[in-house]
Amino acid sequence: MGLLQNKTAVITGGAQGIGLAIAETFVAEGAKVVLADLNGAAAKDAAAGLGGPDVALGIACDVVNAADVERALDAAVSTFGSLDVVVNNAGITRDATMRTMTEEQFDQVINVHLKGCWNGTRLAAARMREQKSGAIVNISSLSGKVGMVGQTNYSAAKAGIVGLTKAAAKEMAHHGVRVNAIQPGLIRSAMTEAMPQKAWDQKMAEIPVGRPGEPSEVASVALFYASSLSSYMTGTVAEVTGGRFM
């Protein structure tokens, strides 16, 4: 029996990167998953790679649109019979210094990360409170703890996710619904590995364990929060950073 046997999870931004790694880990532990991603075709391809319609469903979803999020949650129940875990992972970057960042770039990042996370949290919580159980995992970032140059939009959104998580956790605790957050640091991905070498080296120098993290290492913490292993934890923030900025 896996840690998520007979559970169904919705993962936003699940078609690639950390979201897909979380989906892979959840499926390995017995879960059925709905991959909700802005790129519906990529979500469908990723679902096929996870084992097809018996275990995974890919669906197009813009997390800024509450109706899209509602459809993803509906799909979990109608396809697999329950909604037990929601991982709010979808995100974008529009990095620029304050001097050059446009209002549109600020709004885009705040909307996708913060409003998207709020949509996923509130709509999942409305369902989970009725069944008196459920786990919500919100993906923040180390940028939300310390702030990063060129990321006033992203850092603000990721810090906001921590506040949202704690407030929602207090609201939902007596309903049997847990809400926790993860703050990844430098995680190896196509995006991070495309950084200029100087930027990569600077970040690496800040990491006590001396290496970047792998998406699977974030996924294992998401599994912990999604499962009964963390049954007495809510409103917490786990830093998956290799000790960077501890």
The count of strands amounts to 7
What distance separates the N and C termini?
35 Å
Overall 3D shape: globular
CATH architecture: 3-Layer(aba) Sandwich
What is the fourth-level CATH superfamily? NAD(P)-binding Rossmann-like Domain
Identify the strand order in the major beta sheet.
3-2-1-4-5-6-7
Identify the CATH class. Alpha Beta
Query: What count of helical segments does DSSP give?
Result: 9
What is the domain total for the residues?
Answer: 1
Strand fraction band?
Answer: 15-25%
CATH topology annotation: Rossmann fold
The percent range for helix content is: 40-55%
Multimer state: single chain
Radius of gyration: 17 Å
* Low-pLDDT stretches: none
Could you give the order of the helices and strands?
Answer: EHEHEHEHEHHEHHHE
Largest sheet: 7 strands, parallel
InterPro entries: KR_dom (IPR057326), NAD(P)-bd_dom_sf (IPR036291), Sc_DH/Rdtase_CS (IPR020904), SDR_fam (IPR002347)
Protein name: 3-oxoacyl-ACP synthase
Domain Ketoreductase: 7-190
GO biological process, one term: fatty acid elongation
